[in-house]
Amino acid sequence: MKTWTDRLPQIPYPDRGLPAEGPWMTFEEAASRLGIGAYHLNVLTSVTHRIGLVRTTGTELAVTRAGVEAELAWRATASTGQKLRRLLKDTLAAL
Prior knowledge:
The protein is built from four helices and three strands, in the order E-H-H-E-E-H-H. The longest helix has 15 residues, at 80-94. It has helices spanning 27-34, 38-46, 65-77, 80-94; strands spanning 24-26, 53-55, 61-64. A hairpin with a 5-residue loop joins strand 2 (53-55) and strand 3. Strands 1-3-2 form a three-stranded antiparallel sheet. By secondary structure, it is mostly helical. This is DNA-binding protein.
């Protein structure tokens, strides 16, 4: 895969041409699936690196479907203490 200066892998699909059940999804689709806004998804991808990013041929960002599914699974099974620790860690990482 070709990479850009930001070192994100580039996939051979335009942003709006991603396969419906392929390994990637658009930012909007991922945010909707997680029930969060685009800003929060951006924080998850840039600060915490939990959800993998790729760049489409149109230079738009897409996210990995596996990362979104892993995030959903973690949110469903994490205890309140784990969620609070993660929030603190993410807040400190963003500073």
